[in-house]
Amino acid sequence: MTKTEQTSTASRILPEMAGGLLHIDLAALASNWRTLRDNAGSAEASAVVKADAYGTGIEQAVPALAQAGCRTFFVAHLSEAIRVRAVAPEATIYVLNGLFPGTCSTYVEHDLRPVLGSFEEIEEWASFCRSQGGKREAAIHVDTGMNRLGLTVQQGLTLKDRAELKDFETALLMSHFVSAEESDNPLNIRQIEAFRAVRETLPGVRASLANSSGIFLKEKPHFDLVRPGYALYGGNPTPDHDNPMSPVAGLKARIVQLRWVEDDTVGYNARWLALGRRRIATLSIGYADGYPRSASARGKSGEELLAGQVLVAGHPCPFAGNVSMDLITVDVTDIPENEVRRGDTVTMIGGSLTIDEVGRRAGTIGYEILTNLGRRYARTYTESQG
């Protein structure tokens, strides 16, 4: 197998012009899907590709997953589903965020399936199917503990008596874990039992509960279909153990300028103080590129701060001061001067700076890091060819 690199036509930003260089490893994405599939027992492994495939690009990620064998995709919005359909003409595509009033015909036009989470949505979909004279597929979402979307468990137990279900094809019954990444959380068992009770009232309907972390629970609540998302893109679905997934996204930033600062502050609001003489590298990347301002370093040089880091010549270097809109300042004093120059790139995501670690250092989660990957980056994609 050979590997090829291609620049995303969607970005149209040349690497030499970009402050940030984002690389997406589509081979790793496909490998992660196969790993999740292999851990899901006999259940079908789908792929959640909402939020532009977690920031990696729907138009690139979906074909790579489809080539690996994925046949079912989940998105949040109808507009995302239409994009998936354009690159996966044979796929089954579900829209998680419910049926907006008056959108039934768009679902049919693009052969998409709504996830119905209320009796109002069920009634509207059933009425539309009756008016069209044919049964259309949809999923039904039962809330087993999240308290966001979905029928209550009590409502779910009455589904078998709803006349509207005769007017469309219930292709999937689904729910969503609250805390599957916490393997010993008793809520997991309660949700599994509640979901199983509803499922037993609808024999023959396929069922789906497990997200990325749910796939690895000891109870193996795989049912008929699993819905991995974060783990596909390299996030750790088992935080108490080593990450079984391969990294997918890598981010580098370019050094714009280097300067020495002595006993002075750096950045907006003077929140970071250089004690003695410190060498500061300014990077051409900031919160406008999706790197969170919460990763700012506020304190003094030499202090252990929960703040951002970069890898310079393989060595960790701490942020210095606030993350600004277009720039980040980093303390590179400990790197030999001849090993860091203007125009060099440093690693923002990659190596020891996994997406989970970057999220932790910013006081957030890796999900937010991925889904905020900026539009000003020059994007490249590596894919396997056989």
UniProtKB/TrEMBL annotation:
Q: Which InterPro entries match?
A: Ala_racemase (IPR000821), Ala_racemase/Decarboxylase_C (IPR009006), Ala_racemase_C (IPR011079), Ala_racemase_N (IPR001608), PLP-binding_barrel (IPR029066)
**Catalytic reactions on record:** L-alanine = D-alanine
What the entry lists under SUPFAM superfamilies is as follows: Alanine racemase C-terminal domain-like, PLP-binding barrel
Q: Which residues bind substrate?
A: 148, 325
Tell me the protein family, please: Belongs to the alanine racemase family.
What job does this protein perform?
Catalyzes the interconversion of L-alanine and D-alanine. May also act on other amino acids.
HAMAP family named among the record's database cross-references = Ala_racemase
Task: Output this protein's name.
Answer: Alanine racemase
Q: Which organism is it from?
A: Microvirga guangxiensis
